[in-house]
Design a protein that fits this description.
The structure is a single chain. The protein is built from three helices and eight strands, in the order βαββαββββαβ. It is an alpha/beta fold. It has a domain of 89 residues: Beta Polymerase, domain 2 (2-Layer Sandwich). It is globular, with a radius of gyration of 15 Å.
Length: 147
Amino acid sequence: MTRALTGGELAVQINDNFPNTVDEYTDISCYIQSNDLPKVARFLKETPNLNFAFLRSVSAVDYIDHFEIIYHLLSMRLNLSAVVKTKCPGREDPCVPSVVDVWRGANLQEREIWDLMGIRFDGHPNMKRIMLWEGFQGHPLRKDFLR
């Protein structure tokens, strides 16, 4: 059975290597600063005792005052899972760094989040709509989207 790392276990590993990167943690997840996302992602993938080589999913949640990006990670070699989150303030042009360079599987998922939530992923190689047509006004999964 896959063992889920707690937010605290993950926070210790991250903070030992990147001080002041973890904002907070819960029993099931670890919140990191969005500007540190690429280096933390690479660390989580390439560190032998973590080996999170597989990105299960990337999703986003609209909390009105901020967006949250959630990364579900899996180490098949070590049979571990983890949840990493980052907050993205603002509604006008929310942006977080892309992790496509670390996990190629993030490509379509980041595009879907851009298309439906309007969160841009800086450094993404092909940031364009994937579900709706070019020219569609707005992002339909936002809580302030008017039909």
